[in-house]
Amino acid sequence: MQTFIQDVRYALRQIARTPGFALTVIITLALGIGANSAIFTIFDQVILRMLPVHNPKELVRFEWKGSFSGSMSSFGGDERNYFSYPMYKDLRAQNTVFTDILAADRAGVGISWHDQAETKDAELVTGNYFDLLGLRPAIGRLMTQSDETAKNANPVVVLSYDYWKTHFNAEQDVPGKTLLINGQPFTILGVAPEGFYSAIGGYKPGVFLPVSMSEVAMPWTAQRNDFSNHKSVWLTLVARLKPGVTRERAESALAPLWYSLRAQELASYSHASARFKDGFLNKTHLSVIDDSSGFNPQRDDLRLPLLVLMGMVGVLAAMCAVNIATLLLLRAAGRVREISMRYALGAARSRIISQLLVEGGVLGACGAIAGVGLSPVIAQALVRMMTNRDDIADAPYSASIDLRILGFTLALSLLISVAFSMAPALQFLRPRLAEALRQNTGTSSRASQRFRKVAVGFQISLTVLLLGGAGLFVRTLSNLRSQDIGFQIAHLASFGVDPTNAGYGEDRSVQVETSVLDTIQQIPGVLRVAGTTDPEISGDSTNSNYTVQGHVAAEDDKMDFESPWITSDYFATLRQPILAGREFTPADTKGSPLVAVVNSTFAKRFYGNPQNALGRLIAQGGGNDVKLDTTIVGVVGDIKHESMREAPRGTVYRPYFQQPHPGGLQLYALTAQDPVVVESTIRERIHRLDPKLVVDDMRTMEQQIDQSISNERAMAMLAMSFSVLAMLMTAVGLYGVLAFATTQRTREIGVRMALGAQRSQVVLLVMREMALTAIIGVAVALPAAFGLSKLMQSLLYGVQPGDPITFIASVLISALMVALAAAIPARRAASVDPMKALRSE
Q: Among candidates 589, 753, 735, 565, which has minimal Cα distance to 657?
């Protein structure tokens, strides 16, 4: 122990003696370790981390396949992850392999507490939710099976821990008090435990409601009759395996039960074709899937980007180790006489090696501490980019460091420290004492010289690799931003208003929405205002099946189309071109003839051109008995709707005020100036109209577009940042190697110049060898970069893997970096005075 303390003290003296060198190493480590820790912070939460519940390894969820016809409502992921309420009840009651099964859904509700109204995410859960997960309340009690009885009969609520702290000031007496949800009084039962958010990954609801209260939380679902309708799919299920039961055994045991339940449901499809029945019953299957990390609809979308980012920061960590190893070898070359003298005086090899390892470990520890401090900063920036918001308090992912992240950071720091510390240690395993003690200046072995060249070539290869990947992501982001989405986003404000969240029923929602539209239209600076039930570029999609006059649909013909309900002036507000006919007017209300506007894709598919679509009849729904009751009165241009990557699809627009069950609207206000200027006025006017009405998620359309491509923006910015760091590290390593090599060859250069060599020849001499190393590095990097870009193809848009422009640019940038890093050593070599160089030897 005493020896170790001595080595640590000596290492600290070495740092104090060469503060510039030590600072370079520590900053390099901090950037490499901090970046790795930050990306792993998000990677762990999305991909690796298990739910903070009792024995999460016992949790499973379900995914089915087979034919289906009916209503599907999902909050993300594959629609085959969702089930009807009757199917949930049957599976729960009749299975023999689970201790219990729970069901859950997501919703947005209006919450009023102490006359303060806001919209908040909620989770609708069955009464056994908390018991199955093995959770205990922070205060009060949690929901139990007795709280889930008849429909709309149990208005009770459990608060999430974070929501209780931030909105209820962590008051201990909140159980038993009442708050309003969508205008209805709910009794607070208690508070969920700290650290638990939801069984749904990446979701942070403020409140938990009984699933039996779903029609209060989501009034528009009343028409679906969800609690008895086998054809309404809307719930995600989670089950806990019985002790000793594996997922494979559970899946096998469920197969006959699933088949029999599907056979019972098939009876309700009286007019189904033979092909549908075959797919519904004979080609159906229920899979049992691990749910220890929770059902996260975003996981599939984020898995590959996060894996790519982890690979990039892994490359950065490798470059850190190689770069620091190169710097330590250069410093070690100047310590040859010192180490050799210690050997000559009887120092054991193990003693020398342990000292060198401790020196590297101290540098590594300093870099790790700096990296831990830097990690939350990088992670916060990443979360902001992913969520496109400055306030990340309610973001689905946290940027804070916990013991898991700290453990990963320390393990990575140790690995890097050992890796770069071994380079000088290996150099001094077999010292050549006589040769070293005869030298007046430091020298180094051919092996260490070769290692330095290989290390620089390796760094150049990785730099080209990172630059190529970053270039592809930057071009993807540019292509997404610059494409024509079919409507104009400038001067367009977007926000939601839902009267049902303020307690209004369907009978008054239309009146309230009309008042809201009139109020906003009267605001100075607002040119037009309109609304939709299916917002643009938000990831939402509302589809309905349609029958088209004169079109006989084949059995595999897709007749589902995007089906938003919109107000009059909608196309004028978005400046979406009308190709034929008209858009809706205030006269298109209940009681007037049913009308629709279709987009260009729909018109061309069924009628050849927009003009031919006018006056044709369509109807919502399918089957032989459907009544063709809706007239097409207009055709509009195609737009990007669900996302910036999506190709336009057939769309049927219908008047909002002809909707059977009106509810909330996403409103768009076209302004004469920057829409940010009128945002506060919009909030104030709506609050004046009714304090219970909440303006939800107000943003400009430019911000909405940024939100839609937030993952691509994060990928591009981080990739570019990592590439710049890689170039800086490579430049530092290259400069160090060339500067040292120039010093070693001072006498040779002096002789050459004394014999008449020109300065340009000396510069060429210094740079030729490094140029060869760089060429070899680039030659190795390009095939690897092309192969990796093929794996990332699904992340790209408008650019092909191995794009020649991108990779030529990455090579040219790398060449410029090599030239700049080599310029100073080459200039120094060219300025050597031959007489002084020869005299010094």
A: 589
Residues 6+ apart with CB under 8 A from 478: none
Q: What is the CA radius of gyration of the chain?
A: 34
- pTM (two decimals): 0.81
Pairing outcome for strands 696-700 and 492-497: antiparallel
Q: How far apart are CA 293 and CA 291, in angstroms?
A: 5
Say if strands 98-113 and 178-181 run parallel, antiparallel, or are unpaired. antiparallel
Q: Please tell me the distance from the alpha carbon of residue 59 to that of residue 648, in angstroms, as a whole number.
A: 39
* Mean pLDDT within 25-36: 89
Say which residues have a Cβ less than 8 Å from residue 623's Cβ, sequence separation at least 6: 271, 547
Query: What digits encode the pLDDT tens for the residues 402-440?
Result: 888 999 998 998 888 888 887 776 666 665 555 555 554
- Of 527, 537, 546, the C-alpha closest to 623 is 546
Burial (CB count <10 Å: 0-12, 13-18, 19+), residue 279: middle
- Return the C-alpha torsion angle 182, 183, 186, 191, nearest 10: 50
H-helix segments, 286-348: 299-333, 336-344
Instruction: Copy the structure tokens of residue 422.
Output: 């071994």
Q: Judge contact between 694 and 669, C-beta under 8 A.
A: no
Encoded tokens for 720: 């570019």
Lowest mean pLDDT among 98-112, 482-496, 764-778, 779-793: 764-778
Indicate if the pLDDT at residue 700 is higher than 90: yes
- What pLDDT was estimated at residue 432? 58
| pLDDT at residue 19 is higher than 50 | yes
**Helix or strand holding residue 181 (H, E):** strand 178-181
pLDDT for 209 equals 96
Contact 31/240 with Cβ under 8 angstroms?
A: no
Read off the pLDDT of residues 710-727 as tens digits, 9 standing for 90 and up.
Answer: 888 888 998 998 998 888
Cβ-proximal residues to 111 (8 Å cutoff; 6+ apart), any chain = 117, 118, 119, 120, 179, 180, 181, 206, 207
> Cα separation of 112 and 185, whole Å?
9
**pLDDT score of 441 more than 50:** no
SS3 at position 290: strand
Q: Is the pLDDT of residue 442 over 50?
A: no
Asked if 672 and 528 touch (Cβ cutoff 8 Å), the reply is no
Rounded Cα distance between 319 and 727, Å, is 10
State mean pLDDT over 32-46: 91
Query: Are residues 766 and 496 in contact, defined by beta-carbon separation less than 8 angstroms?
Result: no
Strands 617-620 and 630-636: antiparallel
